[in-house]
Design goal:
The longest helix is centred in the first third of the chain and has 32 residues, at 18-49. 9% of the residues are buried. The chain is 62% helix and 4% strand. Strands 1-2 form a two-stranded antiparallel sheet. It has one domain: Chorismate mutase (Chorismate Mutase Domain, subunit A, Up-down Bundle), CATH 1.20.59.10. It contains four helices and two strands, in the order H-H-H-H-E-E. Helix 2 crosses helix 4 (80-108) and helix 3 runs antiparallel to helix 4 (80-108). With 147 residues, it is mainly alpha-helical.
Length: 147
Amino acid sequence: MVNKSIHTAIEAASATTMAEVRTSIDDLDRQIVVLLGERMRFIEAAARIKPTRGAVRDQWRVDDVLTKVGESADLVNFPKKLAHNLYAELIEASILHELVNFDHRAGNNLNGREDDLPEDNKPTKVKAVEKEPADVHAAEVETTWVY
């Protein structure tokens, strides 16, 4: 992975046209989607293995993942706050996916759709507070999900 990252960094530094940049970003996006798909298969396995719906959201695990992501970001010189914000959104989307899968397995027949969640179990969007204007790499999180 490090060798690929070095190769990618060299390619990015030597890009001279927007076409090169966009082609490379498109290629990376395809790779990211494949990895996200693999990650979701394990989220689905968690929905199958966890004994109760209440076990789906595990705050200790959320904190653990965010800590590990921050450590990984430091290793590759990626802005830690940006990594945190991206993963916070990914984790919330993963929890929603897991809840839908858990409910489907429990016989609620949601067909993998958030819209089919019972009204009292739907997540609601709230404004996030994660922002540091002085840090140009800090992504302002526009929403988080509350269950």
